[in-house]
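Submission checklist for the structure archive. All mandatory fields must be present; incomplete records are returned to the submitter.

[x] Identifier: Extracellular serine-rich protein
[x] Organism: Apodospora peruviana
[x] Residue count: 210
[x] Sequence attached
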Amino acid sequence: MSPLSSLLLAAGLVAQATAKIIPISVGKTNLTMTPNSIAAEKGDILEFRFWAKNHSVVQGSWKTACQPKPKEEGGFWSGFVPTEAGAPNSQVFRVTINDTQPIVFYCSQNTGTHCKKGMFGVVNAGVELTLEPYAKAANGSDSAGSPEGGPYGGVFEALQATPSTTDGGSSPSSSPTNGAPAPSGTNGAGALGVSFVGMAAVGAAALALI
């Protein structure tokens, strides 16, 4: 293996090791996303865990509350995920963060007006793009929008079985999806980010090759 190939391989392994999986409960406690304010780095993975009864997650538009970001601009959509009471769904929807721009997401279930009642969240809130103004706008919305077609912008994977599955205690295995072909890709290019520590490790690997 050439020195350059070895360096690239080391960078990829470090990136995978430094990426975080961030669990988000969808509807576990009434009509909420928990947590609803998240800080994420490029390469981190949002892991949406669905609870009863029938929720969705959609990347929203900052311009119009409870409406989806145009599909041609990227974003993500899980579709509706029916779930029995008492435990999270056996499938999680995972979205890889492609950059650190502010993202808003919501549940588009209109039976019970979930988005209007506060079922939304923000990733990397900005100076003006925050929960407070979005909540005010959502409260004035008549209905929530669902994108057409099947899921996109993320992948369904199996929630890893543990003796007691909690919101922070498990991560999914790379296993089959919810029965339909798994959506591919992420909310963008899906490139993994490398932290300062990761860069140091890559640098050390590079020096070993010289």
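[x] Structure attached
Curator remark: The first strand starts at residue 21 and ends at 26. Residues 5-15, 162-210 have pLDDT under 50 and may be disordered.
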